[in-house]
Structure formats: structure tokens, C-alpha cells
Amino acid sequence: MAYKQLKLWFDGDLAVLLADKLIAVDVNIDKDAFVHIATQELEDLELKARVEHIAEALWQHLPFPYEETVSKLVAILGPENEKETGMFKEYYWVMPIAKLVEKYGLDCFERSINAIYEITKRNTGEYTIRPYLEKYPIKTLEVMLQWSRDTNKHVRRLSSEGVRPRLPWASKLDQFIQDPSPILPILDNLKDDPSKYVQKSVANCINDILKDNLEIGKRLIEDWVPDATKERWWIIKHALRNLVKADDGWAKTILS
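^ that's the sequence the OP posted. Answer follows.
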């Protein structure tokens, strides 16, 4: 994928790519009609709108019940991403699939959660999971707690990134802005994660917590300090970066 603005990759070529992948697994899709609808008025749209527009075209041209549609889409995902990078550079084309699951899968919890699990191994489910946290908070948090122990680093990252109260480019999760306590067991499972990719997500999640619930965030970090590993110290330092910039005495004491 040569360099160009990410939104520009969501174009006619991407629509053709999706159609060809579906045809390759014996899905009967009207390729020409799909590409035509997927590319109408695309040039005037920004990234998120382009992704949603193509997702909508997919939904219209896969005339199956949702569970069958999502099974066919999961079938084209291909090999998992073994690296900590590449979710957008190599697997950008998965984003309309994630958007389709986000928009149309809320009434099929188990099938959709399994799809998000597979999607995030290639691209990311951090935006897709949020409506499920809002509609099914208890069930979804139980799943994400399990994901925090998964062998796949992308899945572990999703368990913290998806619950971030103030995830950039996503709607806020007001329930965790009001009380982040339900997500603390997930962070605790990840506090010594060996993957820098996961560590950064955990630190960013704690940084979000500190913005709205300073005392809860402080207690979490204080509980982690006594037997902190080098991985945990990296998380703590990164989580406290804004407080350090603000010359916060408590944060400076923690890191001294």
C-alpha cells in the first residue's frame, strides 16, 4: 500500500476487492451493482463516512439474514495479522466489514462478538464493540475480561482499547466516565503484558480514567507500584504523562 491519505483507499478499487473476495468464496453478489452503489458520491465524503457508505452498500447487496451475511464476511478475512502494525496499511479493507457488524449486528450478540474477535485480529474492533458495551454492558464486559487473557495480542489490546472512556474518533462511553470500576479488572489482567502495543493501550485507558476519576486512577496506580515489573512501569509512566506535564506533585512522586 503506497502512501496516500487513508480515506482515499476507500474507493472503487476497494469495492472491487471486496466483491472479488466474496466471489472467491462462492458468494453470489452482483459485483457491478455493488461497485456502482459503493462508489456513488464517494469523493465528497471523509474517511468515516466513506467506510459507512461502503458498509451500507455491502449490506444492500448481500441479501441474506444477518447471521449468514456476517459468516460470509468473516470467511473472506484471510490470515491473521501477526505484527503489531499493519491494521490500516494492510487490512484497511476490513473496516467496512467492522462497520456493518457495528450497525446491523446488535440483535445477534454471540455471532457479532465472534465476528469482532476475528476482525480485530486483522484490523480493529475498538469502534465496533462500543454499541455492544452500551446495549449489553455486563455480557460484553465478561467477554472482554476473557479477551484480556487471550493469546492474541490484538485481542488483548481490544479488551482495553474498546473500553476506553474517551477513545479518540469514537463516541464517549458515559457509563465508564461516570464509574470506571467495571473496567479495572481488565486493566489489572494486562498490567504486565509483554506487548508494547497492548501496554500503550492500557496506559491510554488509564490516562482517560485520570481525566474524569482522578482518585480511582490514583488508587489503581498506587496498587500497581509496589511489585511493578518493567512492563508495568512503562504503562504507569505513559499513563501519567499529562499529569507530569501539568507538574502534578503526586505523579512526580510516583515516578521518582
